[in-house]
């Protein structure tokens, strides 16, 4: 049987906690429009419910919290010139902003695969937990898209060039590197997750974390900070690639090879979006920019071609247009940031951070 929209997000309350489970395990809990609206409705209701002190978000199955948005639906919509994807993103980004400003502890269990839209429903939360199975990524440039769901905001805050490296290459990171990049807060071994989530129904969050948080196993990125920080500080994607190739470091050369396989347009727009995000201020302003970029991507040939190559035909041989970085002009990049007029996403914002008492 195919789950109904309501069954794709399971909601329950127990004791002092409200539990949200993304429930599309066969699709790696990929988020669709109906799911985003159901999560938003639950959060809005629980925000006003004094019995719910903590919200806990998990993914069904053993493979991950959420692998992102429903890519096939976006592919069909882009091919048809439709508006369903833009409508979905409008509500999804509103949800991301709600999570970031949520006045109660929002505990996101980032176990397994957490990519794209999965980062949006987790990494904006107040308590973000990773495990030894976590693989966190914003892999959009590989399908001709640009990091969204507040990804350019989060990665723009990462130390040095780490966020730029992850955004451009789409590299998936484990627990320690997610912690280093500011995408997560605590490491908990996966075997302790049932106890942790269960305890949150009966005990204060601070006490539960104290019982279950452990030291994360060593990561990989910290040892590469020298070349990452130097190479990704370059002004353009072309200059970044040149620095990577000239560094003499095998891992840097591998990163250059990875970049040269991505959509040239997506790479240049991603770099511009990251650097603009740092000057925009609060998350809401960045989400508004991302909405412009995402809507523009719907009319870009690379999004359809990238999804075709990676997801539909799976030949892994996209034909990007333009095909090289040199062919992508400043005007091509600027088009992605053009105002949308009446279609703009406008989010209420507060520069004052939420005060969460726990």
Automatic annotation (TrEMBL):
Top class in the EC scheme: hydrolase
Classification via Pfam families: ECH_2
InterPro entries: ClpP/crotonase-like_dom_sf, ECH_dom, HIBYL-CoA-H
EC number(s) stated in the UniProt entry for this protein: 3.1.2.4
GO molecular function: 3-hydroxyisobutyryl-CoA hydrolase activity
GO CC field: cytosol
Name of the protein described by the UniProt record: 3-hydroxyisobutyryl-CoA hydrolase
Domain Enoyl-CoA hydratase/isomerase, chain residue ranges per copy: 18-337
Species per Swiss-Prot/TrEMBL record: Streptomyces cinnamoneus (Streptoverticillium cinnamoneum)
The keyword Hydrolase is assigned to this record: yes
Coiled coil: none
This protein's record includes keyword Hydrolase: yes
GO terms classed as biological process: L-valine catabolic process
Record field: catalytic activity: 3-hydroxy-2-methylpropanoyl-CoA + H2O = 3-hydroxy-2-methylpropanoate + CoA + H(+)
Alphabetical keyword list: Hydrolase
């Amino acid at each position: 049987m195919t789950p109904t929209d309501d069954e794709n997000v399971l909601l329950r309350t127990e004791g002092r906690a409200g539990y949200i489970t993304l429930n599309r395990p066969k699709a790696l809990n990929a988020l669709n429009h109906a799911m985003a609206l159901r999560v938003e409705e639950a959060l809005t209701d629980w925000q006003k419910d004094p019995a719910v002190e903590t919200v806990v978000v998990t993914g069904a199955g053993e493979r991950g919290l959420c692998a992102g948005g429903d890519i096939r639906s976006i592919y069909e919509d882009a091919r048809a010139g439709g508006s369903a994807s833009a409508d979905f993103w409008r509500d999804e980004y509103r949800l991301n902003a709600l999570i970031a400003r949520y006045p109660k502890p929002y505990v996101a269990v980032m176990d397994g695969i957490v990519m794209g839209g999965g980062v949006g429903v987790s990494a904006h939360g107040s308590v973000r937990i990773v495990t030894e199975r976590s693989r966190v990524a914003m892999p959009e440039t590989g399908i001709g898209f640009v990091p969204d769901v507040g990804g350019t905001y989060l990665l723009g805050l990462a130390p040095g060039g780490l966020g730029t490296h992850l955004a451009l290459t789409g590299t998936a990171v484990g627990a320690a590197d997610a912690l280093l990049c500011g995408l997560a807060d605590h490491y908990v071994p996966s075997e302790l997750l049932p106890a942790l989530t269960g305890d949150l129904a009966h005990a204060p969050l601070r006490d539960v974390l104290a019982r279950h948080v452990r030291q994360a196993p060593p990561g990989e990125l910290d040892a590469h900070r020298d070349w990452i920080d130097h190479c990704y500080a370059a002004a353009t994607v072309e200059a970044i690639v040149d620095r990577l190739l000239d560094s003499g470091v095998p891992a840097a050369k591998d990163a250059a090879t990875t970049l040269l396989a991505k959509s040239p347009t997506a790479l240049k727009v991603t770099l511009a979006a990251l650097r603009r995000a740092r000057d925009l201020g609060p998350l809401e302003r960045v989400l508004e920019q991302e909405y412009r970029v995402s809507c523009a991507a719907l009319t870009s040939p690379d999004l359809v071609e990238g999804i075709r190559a990676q997801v539909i035909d799976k030949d892994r041989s996209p034909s990007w247009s333009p095909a090289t970085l040199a062919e992508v002009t400043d005007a091509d990049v600027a088009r992605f940031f053009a105002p949308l007029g009446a279609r703009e996403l406008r989010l209420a914002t507060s520069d004052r951070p939420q005060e969460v008492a726990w």
